[in-house]
Specification:
This protein is an alpha/beta fold and about 140 residues long. Strand 1, helix 1 and strand 2 form a beta-alpha-beta unit.
């Protein structure tokens, strides 16, 4: 059983996170806590300068609202956090910052590009400071 479980979710894969939340429920210590995390890819400055005013802030607000809905429906009363950055690095840094002793992450079936670049889940598994449960 784990005291602090981080569950990174890709909100664009709607509904695909249910198995990760179910696993976190099973793995959580009775007095443990779960934190849901969504990472928004940073937009390079040269692209951000061309975007309509307020679009990045609106995107972040929408992600926060969506993650709160997932958190409310989870039955875990988890903390819900939205951060910006490179997904795998941000997940790993946040896991360390909150003292997570487990990360529950969903992995999609790898495509050809994943064999060359590596998926977020694969990078998290390779570099995590704690146990990682991969849900496929």
């Amino acid at each position: 059983m784990y005291k602090t479980i981080l569950v990174p979710l890709a909100l664009e894969h709607e509904g695909g996170w249910a198995p990760a939340i179910a696993a976190a429920k099973c793995l959580r210590d009775p007095d443990g806590r779960v934190e849901l995390l969504h990472v928004i890819d940073e937009v390079p400055g040269f692209i951000a300068a061309e975007l309509p005013p307020g679009i990045l802030e609106r995107s972040r607000s929408e992600a926060e609202a969506a993650l709160k809905r997932v958190a409310d429906a989870s039955g875990l009363s988890p903390k819900a956090t939205v951060l910006s950055g490179h997904p795998s690095r941000t997940i790993l840094d946040h896991a360390e910052a909150i003292g997570a002793d487990c990360i529950v992450i969903i992995s999609h079936r790898p495509g050809l590009e994943d064999y060359f670049l590596g998926s977020t889940a694969a990078r998290v598994v390779r570099h995590a400071p704690c146990s990682v449960h991969v849900i496929r």
